[in-house]
Amino acid sequence: MTTSDYALLDSNVLVYAADNASPYYKSSKILRDKGIKGEILLCVCPQVLMEFFAVITDSKRVENPIASSEAIKEVEKYLAATYILKIYPHQNSFQKLTELIKKYKVKRQAVFDLQLVSTALANGINKIYTFNISDFSKFKEINVLVPK
């Protein structure tokens, strides 16, 4: 098993897995639970976990926000999950990010999606699970997967 067998979870998958009112709840929760059990190879990075925290606690971004204390417990569950790989940005991530910014000429908020891509690529991962297909499909270096 190599890191190329893993897929990064985008923050929206984590948000939907924590929000049973979401139409994407079931597919997100199934995917997440398979990752927690080691049935599928998934990973997270600090940016994804902090985006999850920011969104799930914000009443302007979700219908049923949760308290910060509950959100941090959810983050800690991902950090403690034995079978979910934790990846981190490093020097190669930033170098890759600057190369990709030049290549794709991204602007504004799109740089944060590209930062996820560069972190994944620098860690040998070339797949991401997300419901925001258009945010990532323009980046040819990563394969976009939609939870089913």
UniProtKB/TrEMBL annotation:
Protein name: PIN domain-containing protein
Pfam families recorded: PIN
SUPFAM superfamilies: PIN domain-like
Gene3D superfamilies for this protein: 5'-nuclease
Annotated source species: Candidatus Nealsonbacteria bacterium CG08_land_8_20_14_0_20_38_20
Domain PIN intervals: 8-138
